[in-house]
Automatic annotation (TrEMBL):
Alphabetical list of SUPFAM superfamilies matching this protein: HIT/MYND zinc finger-like
Any one Pfam family match given in the protein's UniProt record, by short name: zf-MYND
Domain of life, per lineage: Eukaryota
InterPro entries the UniProt entry points to: ZMYND10, Znf_MYND
Gene Ontology biological process terms from the UniProt entry: inner dynein arm assembly; motile cilium assembly; outer dynein arm assembly
UniProt organism field: Neotoma lepida
MYND-type domain segment(s): 398-434
Cellular-component GO terms for this entry: apical plasma membrane; centriolar satellite; dynein axonemal particle
UniProt KW keywords: Cell membrane, Cytoplasm, Cytoskeleton, Membrane, Metal-binding, Zinc, Zinc-finger
The protein's role, per its UniProt record: Plays a role in axonemal structure organization and motility. Involved in axonemal pre-assembly of inner and outer dynein arms (IDA and ODA, respectively) for proper axoneme building for cilia motility. May act by indirectly regulating transcription of dynein proteins.
Primary localisation category: membrane
Descriptive protein name: Zinc finger MYND domain-containing protein 10
MF annotations from Gene Ontology: zinc ion binding
Length: 444
């Protein structure tokens, strides 16, 4: 591992071995919280390892101990919790928590897992000549370790891409709307909505890494990607609408490293990272011999694909596509596996969403001040400032207005501000967590 270590090798092994799946009603419980903290530590260590090009010990442990399927199951479980249980909690009239951070940790759990999966798929090396062979081999290893759960992961990524396409044209809340007065639960809902966009972008990256292994994927997975979900056409839609780009005040902005950035005129013709992920996914799905043999070129598919620019790598394919006759939809009888996690969880919990929400209201999301202080101490131990600064892609942002920040909260040292005025305005929301974090630090 790198010079800055969060976990010792033996400690990382113990944490990975201990990963397990939780029932929906257990989310936010003491055991679940401990695993969430462990996942965050593994996540940060994996990012540190990838940043300094020290190999992938976290990835190797997850593959060796067969924990990739566990991560996929936990990812889909918290996705379902957010869709089915979280809205019920928000509607309960008798639920007015004095601190929403325990709920925020569950909401954030999905982002933690998809970020860890993206990191273990990614292998950063210094020389491009060996990058392709190395990353393809490791991506295949992760896909094989996922076993039949790769089908569930493909379905998950497809759901997130649908959200990205649906988001096009909806616009983003203005700064005034984002920071206007609201109840703690309303504020949490806004944070969850903003987080969903970033999660979807991570899912796009994970999907791209899966397509790197397209020639080695099972027939069921390939059929799911090409026939059931028609991913090439969905990717064309994403390129066409580019939900990670927008015009603000007449200036082009692109979403990168967690926030919107204005693009200089000289940089506007360059391909950004997210567009690049879509193009690589398309190359993999359209130019692979295995995929070409199984992709049905109907008139709709042909029309969608011919919208693509005639770039060099796709030039031959598009020229051929323009001349070939379209094919009727195939009606072959194919025996294939289907993803089972979402359907199983929905079947096990159908009709219980209200009961789960009320159970969590009483036993999970209503902690005492003493419990919150202990939790704050564990958060402080998990989110070490030296590690967070080492893995941050750029300078910190103001917690109130999102501008570049240079001042840290003097009490808890965890939150950044650009000026005193923003800190004062944000204190009503930050104060309770700040006091608890500071008490946790003094307790250590």
């Amino acid at each position: 591992m790198g010079d800055l270590e969060l976990l010792l090798p033996g400690e990382a092994d113990v944490l990975v071995r201990g990963l397990r799946s939780f029932q929906l009603r257990e989310m936010g419980s003491e055991g679940w919280n401990k695993q969430h903290e462990n996942l965050e530590k593994l996540n940060m260590q994996a990012i540190l390892d990838a940043t300094v090009s020290q190999g992938e010990p976290i990835q190797e442990l997850l593959v060796t101990h067969g924990k990739i399927p566990t991560l996929v199951e936990e990812l889909i479980a918290v996705e379902m919790w957010k869709q089915k249980v979280f809205p019920v909690l928000c509607r309960l009239e008798d639920f007015k928590p004095h601190n929403t951070f325990p709920i925020y940790m569950v909401v954030h759990h999905e982002a933690s897992i998809i970020n860890l999966l993206e990191t273990v798929f990614f292998h950063k090396v210094k020389h491009y000549s060996c990058q392709e062979a190395t990353s393809l081999g490791q991506n295949l290893e992760v896909c094989e370790s996922a076993d039949d759960k790769v089908l569930d992961l493909v379905d998950y990524c497809h759901r997130k891409l649908i959200l990205l396409v649906a988001r096009t044209g909806c616009g983003d809340p203005s700064e005034e709307e984002r920071f206007q007065d609201s109840t703690p639960m309303q504020e949490l809902q806004k944070q969850a909505e903003m987080m969903e966009f970033e999660i979807s972008l991570k899912a796009l990256s994970v999907l791209r890494y899966i397509t790197d292994c397209v020639d080695s994927l099972s027939l069921s997975t390939l059929n799911r990607m090409l026939s059931t979900h028609n991913l090439p056409c969905l990717l064309v839609e994403l390129l066409e609408h580019s939900p990670w780009s927008r015009r603000e005040g007449g200036k082009l902005q692109q979403f990168e490293n967690g926030h919107w950035q204005t693009v200089a005129p000289s940089e506007q013709q360059r391909l950004n990272k997210l567009d690049g992920q879509v193009w690589i996914s398309l190359y993999n799905l359209l130019l692979s011999p295995e995929a070409q043999a199984r992709y049905c070129l109907t008139s709709f598919v042909k029309g969608q694909l011919l919208k693509l620019p005639n770039l060099a790598d796709l030039k031959g394919f598009l020229a051929h596509l323009a001349l070939v006759e379209t094919q009727p939809p195939k009606k072959d009888l194919v025996l294939e596996q289907i993803p089972e996690i979402w359907d199983r969880l929905e079947r096990e919990n159908k009709g219980k969403w209200q009961a789960i929400a009320k159970h969590q209201l009483q036993h999970v999301f209503n902690p005492s001040d003493q419990d919150l202080r202990l939790q704050a101490q564990r958060w402080a131990e998990t989110y070490r400032l030296d590690v967070l600064e080492a893995i941050a892609p750029e300078r910190p942002r103001c917690a109130y207005c999102n501008a570049e920040a240079s001042k840290r909260c003097s009490r808890c040292q965890n939150v950044w501000y650009c000026c005193r005025e923003c800190q004062v305005k944000h204190w009503e929301k930050h104060g309770k967590t700040c006091v608890l974090a500071a008490q946790g630090d003094r307790a250590k």
